[in-house]
Design a protein that fits this description.
Layout: H1 2-15, H2 20-28, H3 38-62, H4 65-68, H5 73-82, H6 99-128
Helix pairs in contact: 2-3, 3-5
Amino acid sequence: AEMAAARLSGTENRLVSLPLSRIRVIMKSSPEVSSINQDALFLTAKATELFVQYLATYSYKHGRGKEKNALTYTDLSHTAEECETFQFLADILPKKILASKYLKMLEKEKWDGEVREDDEGEEEEDEDE
């Protein structure tokens, strides 16, 4: 029985490119997961692989990388931003911006936050009178 299991796992490993041991670690990092069935592990790995292939192919076809015959980060982030199917990845694949622009955005948010806090304070004072 052990040899059959070894043969099966060897075949499964050839059917997926992603390392099953790493996927098991990621799955086990979820507090809801206590044990992982071998079939569930294999199917998760295969589904992940197919998803990544789809994301890469879509991004390549719809991006500027085709001109350079390369898939770029910008192509991926553009896909996450523009394509409804991939919008859940927008936080993971953010558009690249210059650090100086990011710092300006943070500064603006800080000022907006302070203005809002002041406004709220004034409203509270008005209510007391």
